[in-house]
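FAQ
Q: What does a multi-component entry look like?
A: The components come first, one per line:
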Amino acid sequence: MGLKTWALKKSIWLYHANVGACNNCDIEVVDCLTPRYDIERFGMLLAGSPRHADALVVTGICTCQARPRLQELYLQMAKPCVVLCIGACACTGGIFRPCYHFDGPVDKVIREVDPDAIIAYVPGCPPKPEAIISGALKALDAIPC
Amino acid sequence: MKRTVIPIGPFHPIQEEPEFFQLTVEGETVVDVDVRLSCNHRGIERLCQDLTYDQIPFLLARICGICSASHPMAFCQACEDLCGVETPPRGLYLRSIICELERIHSHLLWVGLAGHFIGYNTVFMWAWKYREPVLELLERLIGNRNNYENFCVGGCRRDIPQEKLPEITEVMDEVQGNVEMLTKAVLDDPILKVRLGGIGILTYEQARQWCATGPTTRGSGVDIDVRRDEPYAAYNLLDWQVHVQPAGDVFAKTVVRLLEVLEAVKIIRQCVDQIEPGEIRAEVREMPQGEGIGHAEAPRGETFHYVCSDGTNYPIRYKVRAPTYVNLPSFKSSVIGQELADAMLTVAAMDPCYSCTERVAVVRNRRHSKKEILDQRTLMKLSWEKTERIRKNI
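Then the predicted structure of the entire assembly, as tokens:
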């Protein structure tokens, strides 16, 4: 295990990007930070800038307007990093897939700029905070040592 | 003095309308504000035309994750207006219960975030902790923490079993105790009063002029509430009141929201007492040709829905006017003249969901000269520093 991966696995900081979500997944992500679930005890907290973050938490369908911005966010992050697609919309487009402003899904958009990106999917509408925490841990396990 | 333009966003999801703000500042004072919409535009109205009347409520619940009871509610009323169906009484009470549970968790969410903005993270953590039992109750009753999807044209999809009603009362006892304590803590706190009082003022006339709705306008002394003025669900069968505060500042809006939480608890208790066993859904055979409108009081204000039918299973036009859309222009009155440190709080006072951290770029002199990037932390720090100054002076 290299120094970078060792450090990454210790306490991951999250950057949260809403690229066209209904806010449901967003409030569940914030819910993880509050007393009931409190993921800060694992050292996870929201970072104010993508450059400080280890994991990009993406919610929403990725609209036409958000697409270039999401790619920009991913490129700004320090590598190695993981991407968490939270909710059915981020995973597949969900109920909004037939919409004309849908330009995703998120994994396709991110793989366009980095084919080897580590992407975890947390399905659900919205996923429960337990599922989000579990998804984050599984993504960390998937990082090659 | 030199003018500076500060763009905020675009990743700034305020409920169903994420926006891009441009603040023009002179020194520390905001002199102009510009709002641009549609970064989060998904095309829901168009998609509605491809879905049947039974499918549409599931889509509308996802207009906004926090108002996921109010939008389907307004849709069902629009369709019932169109086909002239009466919902059975039990269906009406169930609707009121779910709408009010939504209001409780939405307002507590806002109070928490407002506390976070001024550097009172204790309020943030408290409010979100007190919100959690409500979400768990909803999960027990409906099956999901946030998207309730219990409404359909003619009534409700799922019944709440009679033996589960005491559970609601139990949770309401817990919420009432906690929220009363929180309300007292917020009202008695001298720093909060100074920090929130007198900023972001929207006067009575301005609120009327901008046609603002919901707690934003009730905090400015305008006495409107769809639940009372044009009753739907079971609201006309219950004893409750609309809370209005005349001051128009952020403090008044906070008070209105906290009192509305207690009022919602009162409404739910009465619903649980009065609800009788019976049918929950009236049968709807077909949708006639014509138009229907429905509106409901979402936690953020009035949501208005319009449906136009040609007699088939699909609407030919569907229109939604969400509360934030009409509240946004009121920034022209409330933000201008504020300090930069208060601008975020004033924007937040309208109840944006601030779950996302955004970047802010300060553009100096508009053209040449270099860009300066401020992240959310820097803006938040400005706000926290002001709270700290006030704390020291008291």
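Q: Is there any commentary attached?
A: Sometimes. For this entry: The radius of gyration of chain B is 22 Å.
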